[in-house]
Every structure is written in structure tokens, then in C-alpha cells.
């Protein structure tokens, strides 16, 4: 194939890509119109039966055009997730008039390029208003920014699929009056980042946040005799390596974040678990109202009476109200040796009957209970198409 022929093909691909963007924009506009109807008629955002029918039809049509089922499913899972999250954001904005700000001042750990920075960018990309990023050096400072009206929101990581819960954040939640108003899950992809061309064998010093070292412990064990230096944020580690500008030092962080500091990756996928995700919460001074059409989570903290079976009795209240618990975390109560506060996440809305009933009963049988927030769930589980149905579609 000659160079002119290749250029012509590439020009056609570019034109098709532009056309795809226009079609995706048009499709998103139509789904926003669907959201208007759902608001008016109180229809839930998710309709997984319809999503399954849509995927089956698309698989059938795609196969007729030479496209395999996995390819089609992957593409439309992303499109459906985008549609659901946009509709949820629209419904939430309508349920909280006056909450949209022309400027969103958001505090997070680290600076540009940290995982909290990337999560902040992701969450507020769906919200109206400009974004003012306020990097901080500690979780206490992050929370304090909102408490002192220096920020409107704070983004905080609470757990990771590899290293587990981030206890320092739970301890901050224990001592603040801020409310959880949102959540998101962000994929964490650790890479070995350097400022100069080098080899893995040449690296003598590694910089990273302690949580990152925990998540990459298997990789560190394979490295052998390398000095590990902990930093207060991933962005600090990347900045340090950039400033040193040597071929024997490296940072562990995201490749996208490293690019902001002139770093590049010499090895990727460093985490112990290849499916490595962190869950972040968004907190603010005022709670939000979550429309009943939107899947919601509620987070509360409680301490039980000091008697055998007290925690089991409390958890049975959730079972009796058919409420699914997604998280249970215990933290010591300062000044009260051997006593624990339990942080609990459940699926459900505080405006809904089952959650209301459960909270009333829990207040009756526990020593202390406080709702930390009811907020839209942004964990969008992809609609599954059974293999038998996919084959039938073909």
C-alpha cells in the first residue's frame, strides 16, 4: 500500500471518528430528554430489563456487520454507564435547587497528578460550574478546608480493593459535622515513573505514598535491595523524582499523573491485584436530597451496648428490613478502651420506608447512632447478557 493510499484511509478513519463523536453527543442529548420524562413520572433511572434487550438487539445487529459480541458489549456498557450517571446528576440537581455553584472549590490530598486529584476531575466533570482545585498535605487539612469555608467539597479515599480501608479517613469522619454527598470508584493503575531513560535494575530509591507501597508489595519484594521512601501524597513522590532528575530514582503513581511532571513509565500494572480500584467519598457542609428514582447509599456510624451479641442484634435489624449492607468497618473510640464505633454502608435511601424503619429501631437499641450521609450510588454494575441469550441473538 502506497503512502497516499494510507493517508486516504487515515483521513476516512478521522472523518468517521468525528461522526461518531457527533452521534454520541446526539445520543446523550436524547437520554437527557429521557431523564426529563423520568423526573415527571417518577420512573427509576435504571431499567435493566430494557438494557438487556438493547444489548441483545445490538449484539445481533453487530454480528451481522462482522462485529463480535464482546466488542459490542464493552462499548455499550460504557455508553449506558455514561447515560445513567448523567441522568442521576440531572435528577440530583433538580432535587437540590440552588446547590449548583458557578465555582466548585474542591479540597483533596496531594497536588496535580495524585489519585485524589484524578478522582476529583472525574467526579466534577459531570457537575455544572468551574472547578478550583485545592491540594492539601493531610486528610485533616482536606476536611478542615470545608469546615472553615475555604472549600465547598472534599474528596476523600475510604477504601482500596488491594490495601483495604483507609483508617485515617474514617477517623476524620468520626470528628466532623460534614455530610457525605457523593461517591465514586476510580481505577488505580500503578506505574514505575522516571525522569530519565533507565532500567529497572538501575533504580536504587523509590518514592510513593504508604498506601501505594502496600498495594504494590509483591512488586517491591521482587525488586530486592531498593530504598523505599514514603511521601504524603503520590503527587509529592512524582514531584520529588522530577526535581531530582536522576536515572536511579523512581516514583510509583499513575502514568497520566506522571505526565504532568514530565515523567514516563518504564513498567506498568504494579499492583498486587490487577483489578485495583479505590472508592472515594465527597463531603460537604450540607446533606443532599436523593430522588427515590436514583439508587442510593446511606452511611451511618453507631456504637452498641456492651453486652454479648449486641452487634449481631443490630445487624439483624438490617436483615429484617431487607437492607443490603455493603461495608462494615470498626474503629476504636478515643478515650474509651476496647470500645468500637462501627461504620456501616447500606444500599437504600433515608427517605424510603425500610431504611427509615431500620434507623429508628437501631437508635432504640444502640448507645449512639449518627447518619453521615445519604447520597447517589455511582457504582454502575454493567447489565449482564446471558451467554444463551447472546447465542440466540446470533
Description of the molecule:
The chain is an alpha/beta fold. Helices cover 43% and strands 26% of the residues. The protein is built from 13 helices and 15 strands.
Instruction: Look at the helices and sheets and give the structural class.
Output: alpha/beta
Q: Mean of the pLDDT scores?
A: 90
Question: What is the domain total for the residues?
Answer: 4
- CATH class label of the largest domain: Alpha Beta
Beta-strand share of residues: 25-35%
Distance between the termini: 35 Å
Instruction: Using the 3D structure, state the CATH architecture of the largest domain.
Output: 3-Layer(aba) Sandwich
Function: Catalyzes the Claisen rearrangement of chorismate to prephenate and the decarboxylation/dehydration of prephenate to phenylpyruvate.
Pathway: Amino-acid biosynthesis; L-phenylalanine biosynthesis; phenylpyruvate from prephenate: step 1/1; Metabolic intermediate biosynthesis; prephenate biosynthesis; prephenate from chorismate: step 1/1
Domain Prephenate dehydratase: 105-285
GO molecular function, one term: prephenate dehydratase activity
Amino acid at each position: 500500500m502506497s503512502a497516499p493510499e494510507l493517508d486516504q484511509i487515515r483521513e476516512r478513519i478521522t472523518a468517521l471518528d468525528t461522526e461518531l463523536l457527533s452521534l454520541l453527543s446526539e445520543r446523550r442529548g436524547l437520554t437527557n430528554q429521557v431523564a426529563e420524562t423520568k423526573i415527571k413520572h417518577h420512573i427509576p433511572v435504571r431499567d435493566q430489563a430494557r438494557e438487556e434487550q438493547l444489548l441483545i438487539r445490538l449484539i445481533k445487529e453487530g454480528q451481522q456487520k462482522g462485529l463480535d459480541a464482546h466488542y459490542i458489549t464493552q462499548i455499550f456498557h460504557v455508553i449506558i454507564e455514561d447515560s445513567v450517571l448523567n441522568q442521576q446528576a440531572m435528577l440530583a440537581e433538580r432535587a437540590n435547587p440552588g446547590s449548583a455553584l458557578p465555582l466548585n472549590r474542591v479540597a483533596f490530598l496531594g497536588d496535580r497528578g495524585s489519585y485524589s486529584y484524578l478522582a476529583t476531575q472525574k467526579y466534577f466533570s459531570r457537575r455544572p460550574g468551574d472547578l478550583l482545585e485545592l491540594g492539601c498535605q493531610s486528610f485533616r487539612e482536606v476536611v478542615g478546608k470545608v469546615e472553615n469555608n475555604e472549600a465547598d467539597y472534599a474528596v476523600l479515599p475510604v477504601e482500596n480493593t488491594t490495601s483495604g480501608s483507609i483508617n485515617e479517613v474514617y477517623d476524620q469522619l468520626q470528628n466532623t459535622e460534614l455530610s457525605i454527598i457523593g461517591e465514586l470508584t476510580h481505577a488505580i493503575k500503578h506505574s514505575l515513573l522516571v525522569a530519565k531513560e533507565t532500567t529497572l535494575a538501575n533504580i536504587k530509591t523509590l518514592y510513593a505514598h504508604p498506601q501505594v507501597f502496600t498495594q504494590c508489595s509483591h512488586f517491591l519484594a521482587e525488586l530486592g535491595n531498593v530504598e523505599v521512601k514514603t511521601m504524603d501524597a503520590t503527587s509529592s513522590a512524582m514531584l520529588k523524582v522530577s526535581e531530582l532528575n536522576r536515572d536511579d530514582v523512581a516514583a510509583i503513581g499513575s502514568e497520566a499523573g506522571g505526565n504532568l511532571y514530565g515523567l514516563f513509565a518504564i513498567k506498568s500494572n504494579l499492583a498486587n491485584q490487577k483489578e485495583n480500584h479505590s472508592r472515594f467519598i465527597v463531603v460537604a457542609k450540607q446533606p443532599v436530597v436523593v430522588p427515590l428514582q436514583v439508587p442510593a447509599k446511606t452511611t451511618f456510624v453507631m456504637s452498641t451496648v456492651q453486652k454479648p451479641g449486641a452487634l449481631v442484634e443490630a445487624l439483624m435489624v438490617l436483615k429484617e428490613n431487607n437492607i443490603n449492607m455493603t461495608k462494615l468497618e470498626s474503629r476504636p473510640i478515643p478515650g474509651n478502651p476496647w470500645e468500637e464505633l462501627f461504620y456501616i454502608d447500606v444500599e437504600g435511601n433515608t427517605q424510603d420506608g425500610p431504611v427509615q424503619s431500620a434507623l429508628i429501631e437501631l437508635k432504640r437499641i444502640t448507645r449512639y447512632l449518627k447518619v453521615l450521609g445519604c447520597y447517589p450510588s455511582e457504582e454502575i454494575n454493567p447489565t449482564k447478557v446471558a451467554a444463551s441469550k447472546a447465542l440466540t441473538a446470533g
